Every structure is written in structure tokens, then in C-alpha cells.
# Entry
Amino acid sequence: MTSAPAFLFDLDGTLVDTAPDLLATMNMLLTRAGHPPLGPEVLRRLVGRGARNLIADTFKVTGAPLAPEAIEPLYADFLKDYGSHIAAASRPFPGVVETLDRLKAEGVRMGVLTNKPHPNAMQLLTELDLTGYFATIVGGSKYPWLKPDPRLYERVLADLGGGPAVMVGDSITDVQAARAGGTPVILMSYGYTPEPAATLGADLVLDDFRDVPAAAKRLLGIS
Ligand SMILES: O=C(O)COP(=O)(O)O
Ligand SMILES: [Mg+2]
# Structure
């Protein structure tokens, strides 16, 4: 038995730097529609509220907001294109794999809770050989809710067997989800968010993923 808490990890901007392949897909959709491409810094401000919101926001910042009925066909194109190169350039952030290895060796329960469409999340984690760390993986289209809906958080906590848990993410939806679920939340400073992570109300902001296990234990008062 371990005294460690369970961990719920966000995916994009927390475990994996997905910006390069997301950028390629968004720029394909934009240029095909006759709009200028986005730069990486703009994209990094828009990721985190699911693919449909990413499509709507991406077109909005190019000066060409979409009619609501235009989003669904673009979502279908997004899934197809993104799935064809999802891990071409996307890689785990520094320290992620070694930390997951360590936590797994300690018998810690871990899950992924992401607003990324569920098939994309499964494919990405499979191609990067990361699925084996997680007892549960919940992507944005698995249930009819996105983060920060508390029903989603409850499901994932239940999947992990209850008990103390910590959310590790990069954006405001991660903070709101954890608050609704009553668990502490750590944000990674290198992630995707329009506002600096330090302003989002997390219990702690970390620069290095390797510091997550010790910080989580401190937050929960576990030695
Ligand atoms: O919005 C997305 O597609 C990814 O979001 P995530 O940060 O919840 O993984
Ligand atoms: Mg994120």
C-alpha cells in the first residue's frame, strides 16, 4: 500500500506538448478557408476548452468568426487531419515520463482527464506509449460534459477508487474542475493558457514536472 494520493492529469499543455501538431491542423483548416495561418503563441492561448471551442476561437482571432452550423463539418475535418499526424512532433514535456515511471513503481493510481476529443486522446497516448500508466483515461467526447463540469471530475475520481487526489493541469478549467471536486490543484507554468498560470488560483504552480509528486504530498499533508 502507498500513502500517496491519486493523480488526475490534464493532457495538452501538462503531460504532452501537443501544440506543434494542433497548429498544423488548425492552419490547414484556416488556409483551406482562405484565412492567414496562426503562430504558435496564439494557438497556445486557445487550447484547453475542447476541439469545437478551439475551432471557433481560432477562426474568431483570424477575423472570420464562424456561424454555429459551420463548426460541425470543420470538427469532422479536424478529427481526420489531426489523427493523421497526432504524434508527428508532439512529445511529453521534460520529466514527464521519468516521473510517471516513478509514480507507477510506487503503485500510485493515475488518470487522465482532458478536454481533447476522446479518440484523439487515446490515439496520442497510445502512439507515445503512455496508456499503461493510467487506470482511467477520459477525453472530451467520452461523456456529454467537458471540464470543468463537476460530474466529469466525480466520474474520474470514482474510476480511481476514491480517496485523496490531486489534479495537475495547466489552465483555468483544471482549477475549476478540481475546486468543484474538492481536491487540491497544481498547475504547470509551461502550459497553454491566455493568463499566466500564477493568476489562476491554483494551490501551487510548478515549472518542473519532476517536482509534482513531492508537492502533491505536501499539499495533502502526507509525508
Ligand atoms: O482542449 C483541448 O483539446 C485539450 O485540452 P486539455 O488541456 O484539457 O488536455
Ligand atoms: Mg491543458
